[in-house]
Write a structure and sequence with these properties.
The complex is a heterodimer of chains A (354) and B (650).
Chain A lengths: L3 H17 L4 H8 L4 H11 L3 H4 L9 H19 L8 H4 L1 H19 L6 H4 L2 H4 L15 H7 L4 H7 L11 H23 L2 H30 L3 H6 L10 H9 L5 H5 L5 H6 L6 H18 L3 H27 L4 H7 L11
Chain B lengths: L1 E2 L2 E9 L3 H10 L4 E3 L12 E2 L7 H14 L17 H37 L8 H6 L3 E9 H6 L10 E7 L3 E9 L3 H10 L3 E2 L10 H52 L5 E3 L2 E9 L3 H8 L5 E6 L13 E2 L8 H7 L10 H15 L3 H17 L3 H20 L10 H8 L14 H29 L3 H6 L4 H19 L7 H16 L1 H9 L9 H24 L2 H21 L8 H35 L22
The chains are: A mainly alpha (354), B alpha+beta (650).
Chain lengths: 354, 650
Amino acid sequence: MRSEDACWTALAAKIRVLYGQRLRGEDYHNLLNRRSVPEIASYLKNHTAYAPALAGIDEHSIHRGQLENLLRGQAFAEYLRLFHYIPDKHDTFFRFLLQQEEVEQILLAVSLLNANLPSDYIFSLPPYLAEYVSFDLYKIPNCKSFDQLLAVLHGTPYEELLRRVRPGPDGKTDLLKLEARLWTFYFSRIFRAVDREFRGSQRDSLRRCFGIQADLYNLRNILRMRRNFGISGDRLRAIVIPYGYKLRPATISNLLTAPVDDSMTLMTSTPYASVFRRFNFAYWEEYGMELKYEMFRFILRSASSPAAAVTAYLELRQIELDNLVSLIEGVRYSLPGAEISRLLVGVSAPDQAY
Amino acid sequence: MAIERMKLYHVSGAIAQFDDALRACCSTGCFQLEPATSVLRTTEGYHPVDDVNPWEAPLTRVVELCNAAGVKQKETPPAQMPEDGQLLSTLQALEAEHKSLSDELAALQTKKSEIAQGLVHLSHIQNLDVKLDDIFAMKHIKIRFGRLPRENYDKLRLYDDNPYLLFLPSSIEKDYVWGVYFTPVSFAASVDEIFSSLYYERFYVPDAAHGTPREAYAAFETAQKETLAAIQQKEDALGDFLKAHDETLRGLFCRIKYLREFYELRHFAAKKEGEFHLIGWIGVRDEKAFLQALEPMADVTGELCEGGYAETLTPPTKLRNNFLVRPFEMFVKMYGTPSYNELDPTPLVALTYTLLFGVMFGDLGHGAVLVLAGFLMAKFLKMGLGKILMVVGCSSMVFGVLFGSVFGNEEMLDGFYQTVFGLPGKPFEVTAASNTNTILYSAVAVGVILIAVGIIANIINGIKQRDFGKAFFSQNGLAGLIFYLSAMLAVVFLFLFDKNLLSPVYIILLIGVPLLLIFLREPLSRLVARKPSHEKQGIVEFIVQNFFELFEIVLSFITNTLSFLRVGAFTMSHAFMMSVVFLLAEGANGSNNPVVLVIGNLFVIGMEGLIVAIQVLRLQFYEVFSRFYAGEGKEYQPACLDSAGLGNKS
């Protein structure tokens, strides 16, 4: 049986190797100069670490969605391989990525149900996940009602959660409430696992990682709901998740009630003000992503806690995937390169490493 | 050995004889054309001859044809060449024939690709035991052959209850599943959309495929064999074309190239009132042959130009050196072509480079290797460097005998000295500690001599160019020479003979006065040349500026002199490197490992040889050339058409 220290040491080396294969500023610059999805596929296949995933494709005829699936599939396979190095007693904690995916799939299924397009889930179904999630993804497209979906989730903790958010008289489920409950459940599991499995500086680092993510979730939601949908009061309070790191209840209360004319002013009144002052994004939601990116990059490089470093690497990988999806879709829909580059997180100039 | 004197000639005659006259001038290979309109003004009625070159386009075509046919464009003409009047028609006929063959081959290649692709597609549906014609004849059912990603094939089970969709897999691979789906015509749009969302890639069965997929596959295989055979046939035909017309194509290339280049020379000429005018330079030794070449043409005259516009043109520099010195022109031209009115440094370079290289690379065996290598390079690779290697190799051999070194072995020649010269041993022991100072002092002495020679060359150049300021008052003129040699002499007497020459008179006359002249070189030069000064510079500024320049000049004398220490250093390092080789080769039993000796010698020859070559060149350029050599001359490039292109039409 391997000692825990040996596992962490091996894992630290492994994630550094994987991190070394990340996309650089130059890669993004080259990708931004591609004008079609086949060209992007060809570049990724021939010049990046995504070559194994794209080895069997015909880059001239590949579909955008297929390309995105293959990239995500490779990232997921990489995540699974890390379990070989993860100390056995931390298996539960490191399933957090899988749990994130479960939450995303349930939310997608419910939103399609609300739109009366449940069978469309077939096209979004990520085949690489099917084997690992706690419910049968292939049964979801056949769910024509909320109860049928509950039946698919039977035996999972999600069944009870969904029961409490049944559809209203109009037959539609309150997605905001459901989303808040699912993510609250997700964070509660994470923090319980952190408290149970880790001690000392490892625990503190992990609480900080996920606490900041919870803060950013709340910030994004509050501002989006207030600014774009005019939601306020108890309804708004119901979507705030009770976890965080820097955002105190008083700050959240202030965000819920302060005038919403200038979202930037509101943002700069939070402990995350420095982030919002430094960048100039097209969409203010990207500030949160940039903060996440900077935080995880710092954690990975400073290597203060092995578990936090692994977490940071996995999150950075997700950011890279999101960047690639933005890029692929931007090119597919003929957005100008400058516009696409503004959507990318953690990418500043061609000669800068990501 | 010098720069040949050049004369400017003006050739003119009736325009009808222009081509003959131009050909005659070029045939001598000594006439360097100058653009006539640069001296013969349009205001005086002269106009440039700028007809469009009619051979430009044919040359491009023949080069393209040669490239396409794989014919090497050698400039050695074949025995038989087409007549000038038939050049274009022959070219056209060959182009047409080659194009026809190439087009047929390209069509066959396309067919081959299509068959190959068809085979790939058919290979994946061979399991389907249905006739393709029957399938495609169906009016109410649509058929789609193709493939989809393996993971999406699993999703198809979600459509098990859809009666309008039937997918039959024919081949399952790691990443893809090949097959065919059937759907009623009325539901084709929606089913196509489902499959499209599952990233289904359609492929089209070739129209030429009949029977079952297996039968069609077999037919395609047969067609592929036939096509390959036809391609082979066509390639053979192209090869035959090449063999049959190789000589003709080469002839076309040579002749058209010659005609094109000949026509280009017309742009050097001017015309006026039915007459052509050519201006050009010839060396004095070639004057007679040149005039003889013009004699047969009655209406063409060659007139020597002296004064007038002849003085506005810069003559080209034609170096005239013997066979030993000529190879070193390559080094001189690296720095720059000598100006017409300056000394040709090639003989100096030849002598000093040879001697310095020999000293720094002194070894009989190594020198012999260089001679052999140089011979092979010159004979088989036609490299000018080969001849240089032979010369410096001989010098290395001479110094090798002097130093008693043969492939690093310091004892091999002892018997030779005793027998031939009656000496107890080698004349000079490089590795002896007692000789280290001698080597270094000698190296510095060589440097002093070379620097002095460089300054003397500059004085001569200054006098030739009638730049007396440069000749007498500059740091590289007489003042600099006196200062430098006086200072060196004082140092030598002080350190070697312990005698102090630096009396007040010595210091004032031989150190102080030259330095003062150098300090005042600019105003003195202007005074001698009787040129007024246009710069408004204050006295203080002048003094400060020239003081620091003087300081820099004195410093450069010191550094340039000490730079020659490397000659001694490399002399010793060559010997010591070989001693290291012997040390490595020595075995436990005292004998030398021959493999290590050979490899060590080769390594030293290669590495040390390269370093010494570069270092000597560096000394030449930085320490010597910088004293006197400007290298701003115009290279002598006479009009010399590839006479081979003339064929039998000289």
